Amino acid sequence: MNRSKNITNKVAISILLLLLAGLPTKAQMQASHEPTNATPTPAGDNGMAALVKPVARVNGTVLTQGDLLREMYAIFPYAKQHNAGFPKIMEADIRRGALKMIEFEELVYQEAKRRGMVIAPDRLAQAEKKFRAQFQNEQDYHQFVNAENNGSVQNLRTKIARSLLIEDLLKLEVNDKSWVSITEAKAYYEKNPQQFELPESYSLQTITIMPPVRPTREQPNPPAPTPEQLKQMRVRAEDALRQAKASKTYEEFGVLAERISEDDYRVMMGYHKSVGVKDLPPEVLQAASKLQEGQISDIVQAEGALTIIRLNAHTPAKMQAFEEVSKGLRTQMRTQKTERLRHKLDAKLRKNARIEEL
User: Fold this and answer.
1) Is it the case that residue 45 has pLDDT exceeding 60?
2) Is the dihedral of CA 264, 267, 270, 275 positive or negative?
């Protein structure tokens, strides 16, 4: 199963790397705008020194390792939530995407200042109040101010005002210009009917026991497990199956997948988005086709791995009506338009900027 076209680890990683190669998404942008009390601060003077280490200069303004780390966690929050760290195979690309993002934010902020944009005092006060309300008590709030703002509430206000200025300029140059009407969406739908033909597909969760030697870029087709290795894998798979059969819900199976699955889908609770039948290994398709929604398969051996499947949904092939896809299509078109506008703005701001990556 680990080598199938759409649900292999390699493809999943490649898709994520492609996303990170450009500017991060709007959701990532919004996350980075809001100050957070969840960013860990390394202990001791050496840790603090690492956080203030310069990573870039944008028209003379220094961006620090702390700024970069915050954005890396915004892009890949799993690294922080589970103390898992960043996957080595993705860390360089996450860092590159985060660095481009904080550079972009700084350029947007500087452009807002150049235009003379300001934040009204009452709006700033409301934003500060909203931010402060996320803390459970005053002690937690003051700990954050001390750790992240050198004990200065004014520094915190400056950061909040900066975030609001970035938000305002992006609203003018990106969000307000990215609206997509029903007429535009209908025209796209009628011009591209093949995009709305749904093939038969399966939505799955999996727990996978991997062979000792896994596919890599240098060795995409490793040798099959030896009989002894396969026997050891089977023991682990049987134990996993026993626990999986005892699970009753998506969440229970997902928590189990996070804990014992050996492929990269464990970080997503074993969840695979809908996969067309032509993209599933024959062994997996055969097993999934016998399941009802919510049922769990026996152990499936496919492409060197042992996999347990939970069927979340089976969707027959069909042509979607415009009414079914209108809302999602407009959202998708707006997202694409937003990204084009953001990239255009980024290129425009970078054109005459002085940016040094350290």
Assistant:
1) no
2) negative
> Are the beta carbons of 244 and 253 closer than 8 angstroms?
yes
Superfamily of domain 17-181+332-357, CATH level 4: Porin chaperone SurA, peptide-binding domain (1.10.4030.10)
Hey, which residues does 64 pair with through a beta bridge? 54
- The predicted model scores a pTM of 0.55
Taken as a whole, the chain contains a residue count of 358
**Contacts (Cβ under 8 Å, ≥6 apart) of 150:** none
The pair phi, psi for residue 210, each rounded to 5°, is -95, 155
How far is residue 63's CA from residue 187's CA, in Å, rounded to a whole number?
Answer: 44
Q: Concatenated DSSP letters for 149-213?
A: HTT-HHHHHHHHHHHHHHHHHHHHHTGGG----HHHHHHHHHH-GGGGEEPPEEEEEEEEEPPSS
In CATH terms, are 17-181+332-357 and 200-316 the same topology?
no
Q: Could you give the count of Cα atoms lying within 13 Å of 358 in the half-sphere of its Cβ?
A: 15
Structure tokens at 5: 């076209």
Digit-coded pLDDT (tens) for 76-90:
888 877 666 888 888
